Amino acid sequence: LIxxxxxxxxxxxxxxxxxxxxQGEDYIVHDSNRLNTSETENYGPVIVPPxxxxxxxxxxxxxxDSRYWGFVPKNDIKGKVVSILWSWDKDSEAVRxxxxxxxxxxxx
Length: 108
Hints:
Elements: E1 3-4, E2 8-12, E3 15-18, E4 21-22, H1 37-41, E5 43-47, E6 52-54, H2 66-69, E7 72-73, E8 88-89, E9 94-95
Antiparallel strand pairs: 1-6, 2-3, 2-5, 3-4, 6-7, 8-9
C-alpha cells in the first residue's frame, strides 16, 4: 500500500515520490526486461481519490498493480494484513524463513 485518498503518487527515474517526498525503498527489485518500462520508470503524478488506495508491487518492473488496474475502492478491501506470507533478502538472494508466517503487530 503506497497511497491513500488525497495522496500524490509519482515515479521518476524508478524512484517513488509520495506527496513530493522520495521514499527510501531498499527492498525494491528492478528488472527492466519484464514489463513496459514507460510505466515502471516514470508514472504520474496522480492523486488518489477519496475512499481509494494505490498499491505497488515490490518487484516493481514485474508487478501488475495500481499503475495498470487503477485505484482500489475501500469497499473492495475485505480483510487486513495479519502475517507475512513471503520474505526474500535480495542481498543474500535467500528466503528469510524466520519471517514467513510471522504475526504482525497492528497496534502501532
